[in-house]
Amino acid sequence: MSRVYNFSAGPACLPEEVLKEAAAEMMDYKGTGTSVMEMSHRSKAFQDIMDEAEKDLRDLMNIPDNYKVLFIQGGGHVQFAMVPMNLMKNKVADYVITGQWAKKACKEAALYGEAKAVASSEDEVFSYIPDCSDLPIDDNADYLYICMNNTIYGTVFHELPNTKGKDLVADISSCFLSGPLDVSKFGILWGGVQKNVGPAGVAIAIVREDLIGEALPGTPTMLKYSTYAESGSLYNTPPCYTIYICGKVFKWLKKTGGLEAMQKRNEEKAKILYDFLDQSRLFRNPVRKQDRSLMNVTFVTGDKELDAKFVKEAEAAGFINLKGHRTVGGMRASIYNAMPKEGVEKLVEFMKAFEEREAK
Ligand SMILES: *Cc1c(COP(=O)(O)O)cnc(C)c1O
Fold first, then answer.
1. What is the CATH number of domain 258-358?
2. Does pTM top 0.85 for this prediction?
3. Per CATH, which fold does 16-255 belong to?
4. What is the 98 CA–ligand 1 centroid distance (Å)?
5. Is 171 a catalytic residue?
6. Where are the strands (E) in the chain, listed by range?
7. What are the tens digits of pLDDT across the range 39-93?
8. Which residue, 80, 106, 151, 267, has most beta carbons within 10 Å?
């Protein structure tokens, strides 16, 4: 068996322990004589998987009772649409534009009403989080929307915006379960699981109950939060195997000390990389220091050919998927929960050696 260090932004690496458990249960899940992939979603065995996954997620995130946990297909892009379709009663929504994902979400919302960018960091290639202490929020806004961690640019909201009483909706895809979060500060939190939680195929939406049930007329059944809330996310066949793996990741997180311990480990890992970048003669991180993400660390040499050479040599040395997003270039190391500290240390060693060879 030969595993590499996988710095992919998503689908991303999963805890090896989880993969091994899933492998061991592949042919016969707990005496059922079938794999989870082959099981009816109406069976008791699968209902137990769903129930435990939800319970463990509630424990981990301390989700208050007046929030529903919904497992929804279609990934992040379907949430870009579901949020406005379910919340935009006044047909006004405000968006903070901190990167491509927020921009796409805003564009999608504009299909259903007036979607306004109330702040943006596009003027400096999204390398910072705009000041959100006094946003020009519309009196009629149905919600304020942010993308919490900007996967492509490597920034994160370390502080939440002043919503002036409006409900906050946040895309937490790329920082999902990376540390504690006060759920009660949000109307909706949603995340595609393929970044930090599980295999592709599900977005988990954590929705305050009073925001459910007033979808815009014409909203398809499968795009109403109420459909998932009323059926325990079992209105139709869910992505059973993805949910099963997410459940295992939740158990892994609980066993390894929960989200506070995870946050500590993530801070340690990110520090190793940022400390190196800050003193490097060759590489630099383009993000404003106070807005740096703990999950996605971007870096450049300033020379496109040298960047490409680095990515190629890194891959040959067993550090894969370090190429930056196709729209920004450079490099990006996604160091999600499942990336061990050792992987980051070894990457820095490799970067040091590359710098020795290449820096003038
Ligand atoms: C990857 C990503 C998305 C898009 O997710 P899809 O499931 O591919 O639609 C949206 N938001 C964030 C923050 C992401 O990292």
1. 3.90.1150.10
2. yes
3. Aspartate Aminotransferase; domain 2 (3.40.640)
4. 14
5. yes
6. 5-6, 67-72, 92-97, 114-120, 144-147, 149-150, 155-156, 168-171, 188-192, 203-208, 296-299, 319-320, 331-334
7. 999 999 999 999 999 999 999 999 999 999 999 999 999 999 999 999 999 999 9
8. 151
